[in-house]
Amino acid sequence: MIEVNIQRQAIRVGLRFAVSFQRTLRIPDDGQIYPLPPGLGIFPIFTVAEAAERLPPEWSKSDAFIPLYQREALWLGFHGARWKPNAVQVRIGGVNALTGETGDQPLRSEPQNYLVCPDQPWLDGIVAGTGSVRQFVAMPLQLGYTVEAAVTGEEHRGAIELTVYEPKPGIFPDEPPPEPKGPPRAAAGLQMGIGAGGTMKQKIYHDRHGIEVWDPDNFGRVTVHLLNSAQFREVTGFEPPTTPVDAAAYADAGMPWFDLYDEERASLAATSTLAGVKTIAQRDKERGASPAESEPIDAEHLHVKKLRNEPPARQ
């Protein structure tokens, strides 16, 4: 097993891969396809061991937790080494975010149930269409809002799980190449799970290396639970991060949204399992709930900045 090292701002799996949990705007679920919303800071990461006596006993075999407000959105920022990439599976509540498969599945190429880091810099949601995802949004368990409930009919896990695979020996260099000259690049109570929010443009790239490159027996795994703001305050004694700015107010201020120069890259298609997942807005309607939603935004006239494929650079 690859070693997992949990830090406040990122989780490192092995020597090269790291993931951060980025705060962001919750985009409206209004049928439009939005560009990528910005990063608004990093969620702090706490180990389960730091507060084990105040957490659910079933978390004892898990690794970490982060604080989110109910209905707050997040995205995952991936950091890797181009000279020796990793294959990464992402599950939310035990459901693969790319394919809708459940449980611990081996790497598979048809449909591809993993992403490759690099090239994939971010993941903002479940794959809902070719070139688009439905945003990750924190929701309480046991109310039928989560992707886990939509796919399995049950809500028990809730957590974000990542499995990071090493390539087989001899395919990529064991040491990094010399650094090029020049400037550096910019660089308990009610538990929570992940529901499907609004739709945004995001490609999940095909594995250009091929599935035979990855070593299925050499991997590291990390499980990250979600605590709402009140639970986080009770468990840790710390104040959670402040609530993010409203998406409409952000857009009205002329602040940037983001897109990538990746027109030449193809994207994985959505499976029927994830394409049919009900969104939070649809589930609200079923339950007769009327929560305050973000005001509609004219997605065609947002200030969009084009970025090169380099993480995280969405600020």
Compact description:
With 315 residues, this protein is mostly beta strands. The protein has five helices and 19 strands.
How would you portray this structure in words?
Strands 1, 2, 3, 4, 5, 8, 12, 13, 14 and 16 form a 10-stranded mixed sheet that branches. Strands 6, 7, 9, 10, 11, 15 and 17 form a 7-stranded mixed sheet that branches. The two termini are 34 Å apart. By secondary structure, this protein is mainly beta. Residues 183-189 have low confidence and may be disordered. It contains 5 helices and 19 strands.
Note the run of SSEs as H and E: EEEEEEEEEEEEEEHEEEHHEHHE
Which band does the percent of strand residues land in? 25-35%
Shape descriptor reads globular
Work out the number of β strands.
19
Structural class: mainly beta
Uncertain runs with pLDDT below 50, 5 residues or more?
183-189
Topology readout:
Blueprint: E1 4-6, E2 11-13, E3 17-24, E4 33-34, E5 39-42, E6 46-47, E7 64-67, E8 73-79, E9 86-92, E10 95-96, E11 115-117, E12 122-123, E13 125-129, E14 132-140, H1 147-152, E15 160-167, E16 192-201, E17 214-227, H2 229-236, H3 247-252, E18 257-260, H4 272-275, H5 280-287, E19 304-307
Features:
single chain, 10% helix, 315 residues, 7-stranded mixed sheet, globular, mainly beta, 19 strands, 10-stranded mixed sheet
